[in-house]
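Q: What structure does this chain adopt?
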Amino acid sequence: MTERTDLGPEDQKIVTLARSARARNGVPEGAAVRDETGRTYVAGTVSLASLQLSALRTAVAMAVASGAESLEAAAVVSGEGALAAEDLAAVRDLGGAGTPVFLAGPDGEVRQTAVAG
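A:
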């Protein structure tokens, strides 16, 4: 993973959407993904007695359920210092091994960029 501060406007948009989801829903993480057509899917952490999903896995599931065939990029806003292997695997499954995943802090500052592979 590397430091990343030079995001383009479309990548900055998914970071902003992820940050908004986290704040609006009062959840530990917010996430957003962009599919191959430019559509975005935004989600927060799901924490039910019978279902536990990270925000990123929820956003990927929303994209799949809506018919997305691939992902261009993903973003997570979290207080955590690293992305979970399961989250990267979900992005890789839909977007491929080279899909960028941006990890931002609660302030929206991107602290790391990983590739899903």
